[in-house]
Amino acid sequence: xxxxxxxxxxxxxxxxxxxxxxxxxxxxxxxxxxxSESCIDDIKVQMLIEDDIIKDARFEGVGCTICFASxxxxxxxxxxxxxxxxxxxxxxxxxxIDEKEYDEDILEEANAFDTLSKQANRIKCGTIGIHALExxxxxxxx
Length: 142
Prior knowledge:
Elements: H1 4-16, E1 30-35, E2 42-50, E3 53-62, H2 65-78, H3 83-97, H4 104-107, H5 123-138
Antiparallel strand pairs: 1-2, 2-3
Helix pairs in contact: 1-2, 2-5, 3-5
Protein backbone atom coordinates (compact mmCIF):
# COMPACT_ATOMS: atom_id res chain seq x y z
CA UNK A 1 0.00 0.00 0.00
CA UNK A 2 2.77 2.47 0.95
CA UNK A 3 6.19 2.54 -0.63
CA UNK A 4 9.24 2.33 1.64
CA UNK A 5 9.93 6.08 1.55
CA UNK A 6 6.38 6.93 2.60
CA UNK A 7 6.55 4.34 5.39
CA UNK A 8 9.75 5.91 6.72
CA UNK A 9 8.20 9.38 6.51
CA UNK A 10 5.09 8.27 8.44
CA UNK A 11 7.13 6.51 11.13
CA UNK A 12 9.57 9.37 11.61
CA UNK A 13 6.81 11.99 11.73
CA UNK A 14 4.92 10.08 14.43
CA UNK A 15 8.18 9.49 16.34
CA UNK A 16 9.38 13.10 16.23
CA UNK A 17 5.92 14.59 16.76
CA UNK A 18 3.82 11.89 18.39
CA UNK A 19 0.09 12.53 18.43
CA UNK A 20 -1.74 12.34 21.76
CA UNK A 21 1.52 12.49 23.69
CA UNK A 22 1.45 13.52 27.34
CA UNK A 23 -0.68 12.21 30.15
CA UNK A 24 -3.61 14.03 31.72
CA UNK A 25 -3.89 14.63 35.45
CA UNK A 26 -7.52 13.59 35.57
CA UNK A 27 -8.94 10.81 37.75
CA UNK A 28 -11.45 9.87 35.02
CA UNK A 29 -8.58 8.47 32.93
CA UNK A 30 -7.42 4.89 33.42
CA UNK A 31 -3.74 4.03 33.01
CA UNK A 32 -1.63 1.04 31.99
CA UNK A 33 2.17 0.85 32.15
CA UNK A 34 3.99 -1.43 29.69
CA UNK A 35 7.73 -1.93 29.48
CA SER A 36 9.94 -4.23 27.47
CA GLU A 37 12.45 -6.50 29.16
CA SER A 38 14.71 -6.42 26.12
CA CYS A 39 14.83 -2.81 24.89
CA ILE A 40 14.25 0.83 25.81
CA ASP A 41 10.45 0.79 25.33
CA ASP A 42 8.76 1.87 28.55
CA ILE A 43 5.46 3.69 28.15
CA LYS A 44 2.36 4.63 30.07
CA VAL A 45 -0.92 4.70 28.18
CA GLN A 46 -4.12 6.24 29.46
CA MET A 47 -7.65 6.41 28.17
CA LEU A 48 -10.93 8.13 28.85
CA ILE A 49 -14.09 6.26 27.83
CA GLU A 50 -17.55 7.74 28.31
CA ASP A 51 -20.82 6.19 27.13
CA ASP A 52 -18.88 3.39 25.36
CA ILE A 53 -16.95 5.96 23.25
CA ILE A 54 -13.19 6.45 23.50
CA LYS A 55 -13.03 10.18 24.18
CA ASP A 56 -9.25 10.32 24.54
CA ALA A 57 -6.19 8.07 24.47
CA ARG A 58 -2.75 9.34 25.45
CA PHE A 59 0.74 8.03 26.12
CA GLU A 60 4.17 9.06 27.29
CA GLY A 61 7.46 7.49 28.17
CA VAL A 62 10.60 6.35 26.42
CA GLY A 63 10.51 4.32 23.26
CA CYS A 64 12.01 3.60 19.90
CA THR A 65 10.62 4.89 16.61
CA ILE A 66 8.43 1.84 16.05
CA CYS A 67 6.98 1.92 19.58
CA PHE A 68 6.12 5.62 19.49
CA ALA A 69 4.87 5.64 15.90
CA SER A 70 2.60 2.62 16.32
CA UNK A 71 1.13 3.97 19.56
CA UNK A 72 0.67 7.46 18.10
CA UNK A 73 -1.06 6.14 14.99
CA UNK A 74 -3.30 3.76 16.94
CA UNK A 75 -4.42 6.47 19.37
CA UNK A 76 -5.45 8.55 16.34
CA UNK A 77 -7.38 5.61 14.92
CA UNK A 78 -9.36 4.74 18.05
CA UNK A 79 -10.30 8.14 19.47
CA UNK A 80 -13.96 8.75 18.76
CA UNK A 81 -14.71 5.06 18.23
CA UNK A 82 -16.80 2.73 20.36
CA UNK A 83 -14.90 0.19 22.42
CA UNK A 84 -15.89 -2.55 19.96
CA UNK A 85 -14.86 -0.51 16.92
CA UNK A 86 -11.49 0.16 18.56
CA UNK A 87 -11.02 -3.53 19.36
CA UNK A 88 -11.86 -4.36 15.73
CA UNK A 89 -9.18 -1.93 14.53
CA UNK A 90 -6.65 -3.43 16.95
CA UNK A 91 -7.58 -6.92 15.77
CA UNK A 92 -6.95 -5.92 12.15
CA UNK A 93 -3.54 -4.57 13.21
CA UNK A 94 -2.68 -7.90 14.87
CA UNK A 95 -3.82 -9.77 11.74
CA UNK A 96 -1.47 -7.62 9.66
CA ILE A 97 1.42 -8.28 12.05
CA ASP A 98 0.63 -12.02 11.94
CA GLU A 99 0.63 -11.92 8.11
CA LYS A 100 -3.05 -12.86 7.93
CA GLU A 101 -5.63 -11.34 5.64
CA TYR A 102 -6.71 -7.95 7.01
CA ASP A 103 -8.66 -4.84 6.02
CA GLU A 104 -6.15 -2.22 4.86
CA ASP A 105 -8.77 0.52 4.75
CA ILE A 106 -9.44 0.27 8.49
CA LEU A 107 -5.76 0.66 9.40
CA GLU A 108 -5.01 3.82 7.42
CA GLU A 109 -1.47 4.98 8.40
CA ALA A 110 -0.94 1.83 10.49
CA ASN A 111 -0.40 0.06 7.17
CA ALA A 112 3.12 1.47 7.40
CA PHE A 113 3.82 -1.53 9.66
CA ASP A 114 2.81 -4.12 7.07
CA THR A 115 6.32 -5.59 6.92
CA LEU A 116 6.96 -5.54 10.68
CA SER A 117 6.45 -9.31 10.87
CA LYS A 118 9.63 -9.73 8.83
CA GLN A 119 11.57 -8.19 11.73
CA ALA A 120 10.69 -10.58 14.55
CA ASN A 121 12.84 -8.69 17.06
CA ARG A 122 10.79 -5.51 16.42
CA ILE A 123 7.29 -6.97 16.72
CA LYS A 124 7.20 -6.24 20.45
CA CYS A 125 8.17 -2.64 19.71
CA GLY A 126 5.23 -2.34 17.33
CA THR A 127 2.74 -3.91 19.73
CA ILE A 128 3.69 -2.76 23.24
CA GLY A 129 1.50 0.35 23.09
CA ILE A 130 -1.25 -1.50 21.21
CA HIS A 131 -1.41 -4.16 23.93
CA ALA A 132 -1.75 -1.39 26.54
CA LEU A 133 -4.59 0.23 24.60
CA GLU A 134 -6.32 -3.13 24.24
CA UNK A 135 -5.93 -3.83 27.97
CA UNK A 136 -7.46 -0.46 28.81
CA UNK A 137 -10.45 -1.03 26.53
CA UNK A 138 -11.11 -4.56 27.76
CA UNK A 139 -10.69 -3.74 31.46
CA UNK A 140 -11.94 -0.16 31.59
CA UNK A 141 -14.88 -0.74 33.89
CA UNK A 142 -12.82 -2.71 36.42
